[in-house]
Design a protein that fits this description.
This protein is an alpha/beta fold. It has two domains: 224 residues, Alanine racemase (TIM Barrel); 116 residues, Lyase, Ornithine Decarboxylase, Chain A, domain 1 (Beta Barrel). 32% of the residues lie in helices and 23% in strands. It is built from 13 helices and 18 strands. The strands form two sheets. Strands 1, 11, 12, 13, 14, 15, 16, 17 and 18 form a nine-stranded mixed β-sheet that branches. Strands 2-3-4-5-6-8-9-10 form an eight-stranded parallel barrel, surrounded by five helices. Helix 8 runs parallel beside helix 9. The longest helix has 19 residues. The N and C termini lie far apart (64 Å).
């Protein structure tokens, strides 16, 4: 997509607006599939990153399955036409009732705690289950997205393996997969490979495995020259380790991953219009027609999104703090070097494909923006911008008859 394409999208669909490049999603998917040379590779896209049905359909057409964390995500995947057998369901802290409801769809169940494992195994020993292991490996770019450490709420501790095995033996349940996820934005593939050895060791306890799932957490670049996970190097090293394990295990297993951010982050742009330029004694603010109600990651994670003025790209660069219109501090970037910004210009935020729209809200009673998919040189609307009716659709307005009568009497 060129700047001209992006500007035409804001003219047609308004701002703010999310735009996703289908070709980038496809190229990232192909890069992953080419990196791992195994007999069976299973990729399950992490729906929580970006759950628009058109995105799910696109990935499904490429051959990708889905990684889901809620019954609603399972239903979205099925509505998008994804084969239930290619959906893995990995909830955290949900009720046994939700898991039993999901079972009816025929998806792969992945359980991450001993209590639910024992309850589920006692009631449904015939249903194949994957087990999520916590390898106690600290990985990830931020404490809020690092999920494999010893204090994490995710997964069954590797040190609880004796207890886990007793549950499996006592219930007679069928364990067909083993899984881990250490965190997002993994920089050092050595950490990933170390965690894989822990997972291989755990896998030796189960004789009827069909797959081993290594989660994801592959890092993408957020700015020019940024570090990213070397997928090709990881693929080469992990493929060898995996094949050696399969030979020892006695049969070929499927190698599984659950990429989310890796597939869609770089494909996304968030476009917003500048409402006002405000200069104080020390700062020049560029205030846009959005806020953390639409893009919360910089405030929540401290994440970086490159910001480019696509309306005036060749102008002299100046320093701006780009802020939103929410009645709390919502700063997208402090002291950023951007080509001169004028009121009415369109700013483009990079890496807006993952955990951006999916975390948007109606805070301040603002509407959530439209979503557009750029595919084969054309812009396709894949979500309409919300309206006032969307804000009030599920609200129930009370008449307060008693209070109204009292007010009438007093007047």
């Amino acid at each position: 997509m060129t700047n001209k394409d992006l500007l035409s999208i804001t003219e047609e669909f308004g701002s703010p607006v999310y735009v996703y490049d289908a070709e980038k999603i496809i190229s990232q998917y192909n890069r992953l599939t080419n990196a791992f040379k195994v007999s069976e590779l299973r990729l399950h896209y992490a729906v929580k990153a970006l759950s628009n049905i058109s995105i799910l359909k696109l990935l499904s057409l490429l051959g990708c399955g889905l990684d889901t964390v809620s019954i609603q995500e399972v239903k979205l995947g099925i509505k998008a036409g994804v084969d239930p057998s290619k959906i893995i369901y990995t909830p955290n802290g949900v009720s046994l009732e939700e898991i039993e409801e999901v079972v009816k769809f025929g998806v792969q169940i992945n359980i991450d705690n001993l209590s639910i494992l024992e309850q589920f195994g006692s009631r449904h020993p015939q249903i194949p289950v994957c087990i999520r292991i916590n390898p106690h490996v600290m990985a990830g770019g931020n404490s809020k997205i690092s999920v494999g450490h010893i204090d994490s709420k995710f997964g069954i501790s590797i040190h609880q393996m004796p207890h886990l095995l007793r549950i499996v033996e006592n219930t007679g349940m069928h364990i067909n997969g083993i899984h881990m996820h250490t965190g997002s934005d993994i920089l050092d593939i050595g950490v990933f490979l170390y965690a894989s050895e822990i997972l291989f060791e755990a896998a030796r306890n189960f004789k009827e495995l069909e797959f081993i799932d290594f989660g994801s957490g592959f890092k993408v670049p957020y700015r020019e020259g940024d570090i990213e996970t070397d997928i090709e190097d990881l693929g080469q090293q992990l493929t060898k380790k995996f094949k050696d394990f399969c030979k020892e295990y006695g049969r070929e297993l499927a190698l599984a991953f659950e990429p989310g951010k890796y597939l869609v982050s770089e494909a996304g742009k968030f476009l917003a219009r500048v409402n006002v330029i405000k200069q104080t004694t020390s700062t020049v603010f560029a205030g846009i027609d959005s806020g953390f109600n639409h893009l919360i990651r910089p405030m929540f994670y401290g994440s970086h999104h490159d910001i480019v003025n696509i309306s005036n790209p060749e102008a002299k660069h100046r320093f701006y703090s780009v802020v939103g219109y929410i009645c709390e501090t919502d700063t997208f970037g402090n002291n950023r070097r951007i080509s001169e910004i004028r009121e009415g210009d369109i700013l483009s935020f990079s890496n807006a494909g993952a955990y951006c729209f999916s975390m948007a809200s109606n805070f301040n009673s603002r509407y959530r923006p439209a979503e557009v998919l750029w595919h084969e040189g054309k812009a396709h609307l894949i979500r309409e911008r919300e309206t006032f009716e969307d804000l009030t659709r599920h609200q129930v307005e009370l008449d307060f008859p008693v209070l109204n009568n009292e007010l009438a009497e007093n007047n």
